Amino acid sequence: MKTQPLHFVSPTQFRSRVGEALGDARLRENFRGAMRFLRDKRAAQFPDAEELEALRDIGAEVRRHALSRLPELLETFESRLQQLGVHVHWADTPDEACRIVLDIARDAGASRVIKGKSMVSEEVELNHALQAQGIDCIESDMGEFIVQLAGERPSHIVMPAIHKTRQDIGELFERTLPDTPYTDDVDALIRTGRRALRQRFMDADIGVSGVNFAIAETGTLWLVENEGNGRMSTTVPRIHIAMMGIEKVVATLEHAVPLASLLPRSATGQPVTTYFNLLTGPRRAGEQDGPQQMHVVLLDNGRSQAYADEQLRATLQCIRCGACMNHCPVYARVGGHAYGTTYPGPIGQILSPHLLGLDASRDLPTASTLCGACAEVCPVRIPIPDLLLRLRNEAQRAPDAVTAHPLRGQGAAHSAGARLVWGFWRGIFASPARYRIFRWCATRLRRFTPQRQMGWTRHRAPLVPARRSLHDLLRARGQAE
After folding, report:
1. Quick one: three-class SS letters along 90-127?
2. What residues have CB less than 8 Å from 427, skipping those under 6 apart?
């Protein structure tokens, strides 16, 4: 079995890829059916609206409480991990995170890595870094394994291969896995994937995982999964490396319980996942399994920027369920690859500007109807539409404007022409006299309206004033303005 390197694209190409996605009828049909299925499954898990709203209140409070004490909880978490014999590493950037993992691998003489599902490892492009140094890294989550074989990026944070049909996967396995005949039977495909991966767990020197919730009080890593690959990746190899964003910490095990209830029901419509793995340190004397050595990599990568701003801090409440994506009319039509980011959909639109900077992601916050569906289903009540509007304003702000918490790439979408136009409209509407003069001129000189009106006419007909204004029509009827 030979894996392929992943092919990454930039979010700066978002506009062109949206056009391609909208022109792909098969892709749109696949996503329409998948999103409808996931929405229905989620709805079935919350038949009691009052219970749902109460649970969302609890989940939001748990996350806000953790964020309000984040520096303190991170210090407690680090201290507790060290007491358990876990090596703790802090990484400011993706490059630093990859360097930490590579150093661990070199020190251990490791050449084979098996990886459970980890969005942070996707975020830092760990597979690329390992492969560049000759270290074999295999994804063990079935969806991640499929997209790795295809040389693609995940298109959903919970279901990475949701854009593929079983026929696509059958053809992929036939092409990339030795002695594998074509089949589109789902059970047979799963068995094929298991056979390809089983020995990889036994041969791996290092197992890499993500972290769903990190418990400061006990130093426990809580992993949520359905396939058992997470449990195998964290217990069979002699070294376990867990990678997590600094926002994943909560105070106590008790605080994680409502989040563990919300996550599977919101993500996949399950009452509970198959496995809850609670890992508290490496293998102890007398234990039969578990890693001999354990490392935790805590990644910032722009999260402290979001944390510093009281409004934008709500971005870090996310528990990565993907419900906002499943209910987003934009994501359902263009799919995850169009965004060019690790985190697509609504959550990616508010998180990516902190990870990548607004200069690289300025178009993402505008890819929303602001319908509010994402906020209505978010299990921890992130006000996503409000944050999208804030990021749009930050992208349009003058680059040299002084703010309390400037964002990286501030003013990336700033335009002197747009600023002039908005200044003109502000001047017109600030004075009744100027407005009346403009109204009279607009209706009489309508034939001279420009046909190109900046971004408006990219996808719409030009705006042309009516022959007679509303005030003129009312006056003709003898009615007061």
Report:
1. EECCHHHHHHHHHHHHHHHCCCEEEECCCHHHHHCCHH
2. 434
Report the sign of the C-alpha dihedral through residues 26, 29, 35, 38, in that order: negative
**Closest residue by Cα to residue 136 from 2, 234, 235:** 2
**Which residue in 140, 319, 304 sits closest to 234, CA to CA?**
140
Q: How far is CA 390 from CA 371, 372, 420, in A?
A: 16, 15, 21
Note the pLDDT tens digit of each residue in 83-135.
999 999 999 999 999 999 999 999 999 999 999 999 999 999 999 999 999 99
Helix, strand, coil fractions of the chain, as percent rounded to 5: 55, 10, 35
* Beta strand pairing call for 220-225 and 213-215: antiparallel
Contacts of 444 (CB under 8 A, 6+ apart): none
Specify burial of residue 238 (Cβ count, 10 A radius: 0-12, 13-18, 19+): middle
Provide the token pair at 427. 């001047």
Cross-strand partners of 279: 221
| DSSP reduced 3-state for 190 | helix
Please give the mean pLDDT across all residues of the chain: 93
pTM of structure: 0.91
Helix (H), strand (E) counts: the chain: 22, 10
Sign of torsion over alpha carbons 268, 127, 214, 91: negative
The band of 1, judged by pLDDT with boundaries at 50, 70 and 90, is very low
Question: Which domains are delineated in the chain?
Answer: 11-304 (3.40.50.10420), 420-476 (no CATH)
DSSP 259-301: HHHHHHHHHTS-SS-SEEEEE-SSPPTT-SSS-SEEEEEEE-T
pLDDT surpassing 60 at residue 8 = no
Question: Structure tokens of 285?
Answer: 């004397």
| pLDDT of 422 over the 50 cut | yes
Does position 382 have pLDDT exceeding 90, yes or no?
Answer: yes
